C-alpha cells in the first residue's frame, strides 16, 4: 500500500475506530459493572472492579429464576422465528409466482404494516383478540402476534425470489413436481441465505420483546420472559436497589443472541455484500 493511499484512508479508519468505540463503550461499561459491588457501581469511583464479583452472575441467575425466564424467551423466540420464516416465505412464493385477484392489495396491506408501526396502540385489540380465542394466558398469544408482524421478512424474502429464475420452476414441473413440492424441494433450499438473515432479525426482535410478554404474563408470572424478568432484579432484599445484579442479568440475557449471530453471521455478510454490489 502506497503512502498516498494510507494518507487518504487514515480519516476513514479514524472514523470507523471512533464509531466502534462509541458503540462498544456502553457494552464495556455494562460488562465491567456486572462484576462490581453495588457500592462501587453506585459511587462510580472506579473504572475496573477492585475485586471481580463472579457471584453477581450466580446470584442473578438464582434470584431471578433465570432458567425459567430463559426457557420462556427461547420458546417464544424459536417458535416466532420458525413461524415467521414459514409464513413470510410461503406468502412471498405465492405473490411472486402466482397471479391472483387482490395481489396488489395484499402487497399494499403488507407495506402498511411495515411502515405504520403503531405499537402499543393496537395492544388492546390484540389482547382482546387473544381473549376471544382463549390464548390471553398463554405464550402462544405472544407468538401469534409476533408472527403476524412479518412484513419486513416478507419483503426481504420476496427480493430473493425475484433473483431465482422461473426456469427452475418449469424444470421441476417437467420432472414431476407440483406447485407445493417445487417450493419445498427446489425453491426453499435456495433461500437459505435470506432465511438466515430473516431468522437473525426475527429472533432478535422476539427475544427483546418486552410489552407483549409483560401484558400476557400479568396473571401468570411463570410465563415471564427474560426482558420482563430482568426487572425483578432491580430490588433485592430489603427493597435495596441492586443495579449490579441487573447488569449481570442483562449480560446473561445477550448470550443467546450472540450465539445466534455467530451461526447466522456468514449468511448475513453474504447478503450484505450482495446488497452493496447491487
TrEMBL record:
<comment type="similarity">
    <text>Belongs to the binding-protein-dependent transport system permease family.</text>
</comment>
<keyword id="KW-0812">Transmembrane</keyword>
<keyword id="KW-1003">Cell membrane</keyword>
<dbReference type="InterPro" id="IPR035906">
    <property type="entry name" value="MetI-like_sf"/>
</dbReference>
<feature type="transmembrane region" description="Helical">
    <location>
        <begin position="182"/>
        <end position="203"/>
    </location>
</feature>
<feature type="transmembrane region" description="Helical">
    <location>
        <begin position="105"/>
        <end position="127"/>
    </location>
</feature>
<dbReference type="GO" id="GO:0005886">
    <property type="term" value="C:plasma membrane"/>
</dbReference>
<feature type="transmembrane region" description="Helical">
    <location>
        <begin position="245"/>
        <end position="264"/>
    </location>
</feature>
<feature type="transmembrane region" description="Helical">
    <location>
        <begin position="74"/>
        <end position="93"/>
    </location>
</feature>
<feature type="domain" description="ABC transmembrane type-1">
    <location>
        <begin position="70"/>
        <end position="264"/>
    </location>
</feature>
<dbReference type="GO" id="GO:0055085">
    <property type="term" value="P:transmembrane transport"/>
</dbReference>
<feature type="transmembrane region" description="Helical">
    <location>
        <begin position="139"/>
        <end position="161"/>
    </location>
</feature>
<dbReference type="Pfam" id="PF00528">
    <property type="entry name" value="BPD_transp_1"/>
</dbReference>
<keyword id="KW-1133">Transmembrane helix</keyword>
<dbReference type="InterPro" id="IPR000515">
    <property type="entry name" value="MetI-like"/>
</dbReference>
<protein>
    <submittedName>
        <fullName>Sugar ABC transporter permease</fullName>
    </submittedName>
</protein>
<feature type="transmembrane region" description="Helical">
    <location>
        <begin position="12"/>
        <end position="32"/>
    </location>
</feature>
<keyword id="KW-0813">Transport</keyword>
<keyword id="KW-0472">Membrane</keyword>
Amino acid at each position: 500500500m502506497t503512502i498516498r493511499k494510507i494518507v487518504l484512508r487514515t480519516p476513514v479508519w479514524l472514523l470507523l475506530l471512533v464509531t466502534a468505540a462509541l458503540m462498544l463503550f456502553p457494552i464495556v461499561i455494562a460488562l465491567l459493572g456486572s462484576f462490581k459491588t453495588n457500592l462501587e457501581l453506585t459511587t462510580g469511583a472506579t473504572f475496573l472492579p477492585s475485586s471481580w464479583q463472579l457471584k453477581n452472575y450466580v446470584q442473578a441467575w438464582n434470584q431471578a429464576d433465570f432458567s425459567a425466564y430463559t426457557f420462556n424467551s427461547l420458546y417464544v423466540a424459536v417458535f416466532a422465528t420458525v413461524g415467521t420464516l414459514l409464513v413470510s416465505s410461503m406468502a412471498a412464493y405465492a405473490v411472486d409466482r402466482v397471479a391472483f385477484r387482490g395481489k396488489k392489495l395484499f402487497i399494499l396491506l403488507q407495506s402498511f404494516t411495515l411502515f405504520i408501526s403503531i405499537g402499543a396502540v393496537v395492544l388492546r385489540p390484540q389482547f382482546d383478540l387473544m381473549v376471544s380465542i382463549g390464548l390471553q394466558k398463554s405464550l402462544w398469544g405472544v407468538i401469534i402476534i409476533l408472527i403476524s408482524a412479518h412484513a419486513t421478512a416478507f419483503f426481504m424474502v420476496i427480493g430473493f425470489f425475484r433473483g431465482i429464475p422461473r426456469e427452475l420452476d418449469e424444470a421441476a414441473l417437467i420432472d414431476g413436481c407440483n406447485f407445493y413440492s417445487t417450493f419445498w424441494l427446489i425453491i426453499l433450499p435456495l433461500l437459505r441465505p435470506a432465511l438466515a438473515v430473516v431468522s437473525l432479525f426475527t429472533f432478535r426482535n422476539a427475544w427483546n420483546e418486552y410489552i407483549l410478554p409483560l401484558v400476557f404474563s400479568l396473571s401468570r408470572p411463570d410465563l415471564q420472559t427474560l426482558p420482563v424478568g430482568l426487572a425483578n432484579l432491580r430490588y433485592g432484599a430489603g427493597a435495596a436497589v441492586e443495579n449490579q445484579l441487573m447488569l449481570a442479568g442483562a449480560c446473561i440475557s445477550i448470550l443467546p443472541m450472540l450465539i445466534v449471530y455467530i451461526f447466522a453471521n456468514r449468511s448475513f455478510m453474504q447478503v450484505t455484500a450482495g446488497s452493496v454490489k447491487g
